[in-house]
């Protein structure tokens, strides 16, 4: 079990550190890039995806923190799932924890990638991409097994 948790936490910490480092560059360096496809511009999302639930204000960060701790507790009980998907779950929860940390430090999630080629998409960040990537990898592994 220690090896599984070790693998989980390596991915968790690496994703969280990379995400926070990128966000540090945007919040302290004033990075801003505009192009035909993507703009890199600093914004703070007070809600969740597409700014939903922003009305929850300060309660949102507590709710999300409880969810992350609860999911981790569930995974400790579901050792087979944690063993099978330890890297992917570490990526997902590390990215989620990084976004929650933003809420405590900055009052909202630090977002900076604005895709606007062909359509305007929500502003997002590295952690958001990692959450989606982790889910896609889990789904692909489940489909390939079948």
TrEMBL record:
<feature type="transmembrane region" description="Helical">
    <location>
        <begin position="82"/>
        <end position="101"/>
    </location>
</feature>
<keyword id="KW-1133">Transmembrane helix</keyword>
<keyword id="KW-0378">Hydrolase</keyword>
<dbReference type="GO" id="GO:0004190">
    <property type="term" value="F:aspartic-type endopeptidase activity"/>
</dbReference>
<comment type="pathway">
    <text>Protein modification; lipoprotein biosynthesis (signal peptide cleavage).</text>
</comment>
<dbReference type="Pfam" id="PF01252">
    <property type="entry name" value="Peptidase_A8"/>
</dbReference>
<feature type="active site">
    <location>
        <position position="111"/>
    </location>
</feature>
<keyword id="KW-0645">Protease</keyword>
<keyword id="KW-1003">Cell membrane</keyword>
<feature type="active site">
    <location>
        <position position="128"/>
    </location>
</feature>
<comment type="similarity">
    <text>Belongs to the peptidase A8 family.</text>
</comment>
<keyword id="KW-0064">Aspartyl protease</keyword>
<keyword id="KW-0472">Membrane</keyword>
<protein>
    <recommendedName>
        <fullName>Lipoprotein signal peptidase</fullName>
        <ecNumber>3.4.23.36</ecNumber>
    </recommendedName>
</protein>
<dbReference type="InterPro" id="IPR001872">
    <property type="entry name" value="Peptidase_A8"/>
</dbReference>
<keyword id="KW-0812">Transmembrane</keyword>
<feature type="transmembrane region" description="Helical">
    <location>
        <begin position="47"/>
        <end position="75"/>
    </location>
</feature>
<feature type="transmembrane region" description="Helical">
    <location>
        <begin position="121"/>
        <end position="144"/>
    </location>
</feature>
<comment type="function">
    <text>This protein specifically catalyzes the removal of signal peptides from prolipoproteins.</text>
</comment>
<feature type="transmembrane region" description="Helical">
    <location>
        <begin position="7"/>
        <end position="27"/>
    </location>
</feature>
